[in-house]
Amino acid sequence: MRAEATQRVALVFSLLDANGNGVLDAGDFDLMSDRVVAAASASSDGAKDAMRTAFRQYWTTLADELDTDGDQVISFDEYTACVLAPERFDATVTAFAEALAALGDPDGDGLIERPLFVDLMTAIGFRPANIHALFDAFGPTAEDRVAVPTWAEAIKDYYAPDKAGTTGDLLVPSATA
Ligand SMILES: [Ca+2]
Ligand SMILES: [Ca+2]
Ligand SMILES: [Ca+2]
């Protein structure tokens, strides 16, 4: 595995472990889902439901693919196996990325404003300095907005287990330290 991929696998694992108990479990995804939906107050119920569904699907896919010992939680060692068959996660990650990006555009003009971007990314667990660095890297418009597909693609790249050298690497804390 490339060094960047190893670092990001560790970072994504710590991010997904929202309740901080050292393993991935269903509760992590409920917690993140609640936080993200709470941050998306201007979104429609349909968009919020799509986000909840995408979080549930994310957990179900991880549990199906990676819970090797069948104890209903995913240890870090089990999680690292995700890089061996990244294609198994494509559909889940795409659905997750699209649901999240849609929450960023409640008025449907195809653009995400910085304050909402910051709120949603904070809800997921990223740090403000990294969030702003990423938004800046997207090349915002004069009105400080970025296109929805730009963000959706970055989410997909970020959660794809085998990618490296993407704009999402700006979310690794050391990148802006
Ligand atoms: Ca956990
Ligand atoms: Ca397990
Ligand atoms: Ca918008």
From TrEMBL:
Enumerate the SUPFAM superfamilies for this protein: EF-hand
Record domain EF-hand: where: 8-36, 58-86, 96-124
Q: Which residues cross the membrane?
A: none
Q: What is this protein called?
A: EF-hand domain-containing protein
